[in-house]
Write a structure and sequence with these properties.
2 copies of one chain form a homodimer. Chain A has 11 helices and 12 strands. In chain A, helix 1 (about 5-10) packs across helix 3, helix 5 packs parallel to helix 11 and helix 7 packs parallel to helix 8 (about 190-200). By secondary structure, the first copy, chain A, is an alpha/beta fold. The first copy, chain A, has helices at about 5-10, 15-25, 30-45, 50-55, 70-85, 100-110, 160-175, 190-200, 220-230, 245-255, 290-305; strands at about 60-65, 90-95, 120, 140-145, 155-160, 180-185, 210-215, 240, 265-270, 285, 315, 320. In chain A, about 40% of the residues lie in helices and about 15% in strands. In chain A, helix 5 (about 70-85) links the parallel strand 1 and strand 2 (about 90-95). Chain A starts with a helix and ends in a 10-residue tail after the last strand. A 6-stranded parallel sheet of chain A has the order 2-1-3-4-5-11, sandwiched between helices. At the A-B interface, helix 4, helix 5, strand 2, helix 6 and helix 10 of A face helix 4, helix 5, strand 2, helix 6 and helix 10 of B. The structure holds a DNA duplex.
DNA sequence: CTGCTCCACTTAACCGGTCAAATACGAGGG
DNA sequence: CCCTCGTATTTGACCGGTTAAGTGGAGCAG
């Protein structure tokens, strides 16, 4: 390992001068700087980032907690976060919590000791119970993709999930649907509430037994729940699913029940990935996840440079309705 | 920030004794240890990992380069890698290269300075040209999911991609297909070669113009290429796609051309994610990506503890044929 | 009582940088 | 010619741990 001291001796200066050349914080005479740079090249010196981190107190690394990266949603967020971090010269330490609170806690505890400069947490399912661990965190923490109530302590950049549900409901209302049902993940309460609001605005209610929760966020889970729903309540003319893979299962179930989409049953989902192309293409409420990730990361970095606590605010990104082929006015 | 020194003073010992209690490397009298532990709890002390890294020379962090995490393939690999690392008490530093060689090079250069203990590189598309940068790496490097020729310097854990193609070809041959075509990503040469070998074994050739390369690894790219293929060469009875999203596009194109799958056209893909459920379900050659990721990571960790260079070997994981509904004997 | 070993702990140096204060040097003004 | 001033470089302490060598006292044999 070639150190700064080695470079210094070779260039006939002290290591402090070498440091000055590298960081550029203090002026160095051009001829000296050239000599130092030559020595750096000849020896193939690269600064030891760990030593630098110890001295400066900054690792230039940001931790990012996500529930999973096996799907497109958080995967894309990770890429966006990484892009922003890279522009700022930071590295990305990734932790996937995998619906496992204990695992999340372990990871969290492992990071609390100066190995990251800041922490971004997406998806509230697993970490929620362990956030108090962070109450004495000395680094900025930002939450994003947060659907449930967030602790006051931390700034949040998330989606207006209630509005996402509302947009779906309003679309179905505008098409004339009255009897509808919802296929949801248990955590998606805000979307369900928004969906209901759209109907309530017209004096209609979405009864509790028209809201079904899938056992698992998989196509199979969506299929089972949708199948049960269509069997017990065949009168519904439209179905709202809060998760893209649930929509896939629902589409299957509709087909299996002999109902053509959209004529016999309208289907509207949330943030259907473009990879999931189906027949017909699914109408969806798009979640601006990349923009959200970018905003959250930039907020985090701003807090890092301003060395103050970040503005304790809640920033809501607006979802957007994308009408494709799976919704139509009800038959008859 | 409470340091080891603070704990030491509180417990009435020196910081070395505190260190001994924490690491357990040197015996400490039980009564003293208890006092130290009490002080740790009272002060809420957590060791500074950066300082420890500087002293020990180990960051307990492993870098992982992948082309992308927006799709399921590498996303699942990331999770598997993380699992193995976590068991060993290591962190994961993630870099996605995003088909951008220059970006990959920058990231690589940023890590060469003691910030990671080891490096795992998956997917050969972007990094290939920059591997010489690693020639003087002081830490273990392992390559995985490597389809092209790998540099001799590094151990490789990858898939027998040639065999993956062969299995697809053999399946079609066993069904009786003679005139077939391939829809490939440009980098998937090994799979195409294996596919050809299966036909060559029966004295048949897959002509060059039956192998089409998609402009982009997207459903749209697959659709365009498959559409062109079916238009110019309507006599093919089966189609092999080397990428899951290409298969989706191909399925669309077959439908658009009025050919029912599998009766008018058999379709076989590679590693179709279970999320991509289609009608009919796609026959596929499954790529054991999680096992591959696990093996590669364990190899890396072994190299880390044995403090020697890892055995410079090539380990090939066997793909597996999964017959579903998209393949059948040719019509007539 | 002396000398030896062993245990438990302390002391001092080190990892490789950064930071702030001190110093050497040359130019300009009186 | 001396003093001042500004710039370029050096000095020494420091970040918070780990490693290796050193020290003091207890226990035991001779």
């Amino acid at each position: 390992m070639v150190t700064m001291q080695d470079v210094a001796e070779r260039a006939g200066v002290t290591k402090q001068t070498v440091s000055n050349v590298i960081t550029g914080r203090v002026a160095v005479r051009p001829t000296t700087a050239a000599r130092v740079r030559a020595a750096i090249d000849e020896l193939g010196y690269t600064p030891n980032l760990v030593a630098r981190s110890l001295a400066t107190g900054s690792t230039r690394t940001v931790g990012f907690f996500v529930p999973t990266v096996a799907g497109a949603f958080y995967g894309e967020m990770v890429e966006e976060v990484e892009d922003v971090l890279e522009e700022a010269g930071h590295h990305l330490l990734l932790c996937t919590t995998r619906l496992d609170g204990e695992r999340a806690r372990r990871h969290l505890a492992g990071l609390t000791s100066r190995s990251v400069d800041a922490l971004l947490i997406a998806g509230d399912q697993d970490l929620l119970g362990h956030l108090p661990l962070l109450s004495d965190a000395r680094f900025p923490v930002v939450l994003c993709a947060w659907e449930t109530e967030a602790p006051d302590r931390f700034p949040v950049v998330t989606i207006d999930y209630e509005r996402a549900g509302y947009l779906a409901g309003r679309h179905l209302r505008e098409l004339g649907h009255r009897r509808v049902a919802v296929l949801a993940s248990p955590a998606h309460t805000a979307r369900v509430a928004g969906f209901r609001r759209a109907f309530a605005a017209d004096g209609l209610t979405v009864p509790d037994d028209a809201v079904r929760y899938a056992a698992a966020p998989t196509p199979a889970g969506g299929f089972a729940a949708a199948e049960a729903l269509l069997a017990t309540d065949p009168g519904v003319t439209a179905l709202f699913t809060t998760h893209d893979v649930l929509a896939l299962g629902a589409l299957e179930a509709a087909r299996a029940a002999g109902r053509s989409v959209p004529h016999d049953l309208s289907l509207i989902g949330q943030d259907i990935s473009e990879v999931l192309l189906t027949h017909p293409a699914l109408t969806t409420v798009s979640i601006p996840k990349r923009e959200m990730a970018r905003q959250a990361t930039e907020l985090l970095l701003r807090a890092l440079t301003k060395t103050g606590t970040p503005a304790n605010s809640v920033q809501l990104m607006r979802p957007e309705l994308i009408v494709r082929g799976s919704t139509a006015p009800p038959a008859g």
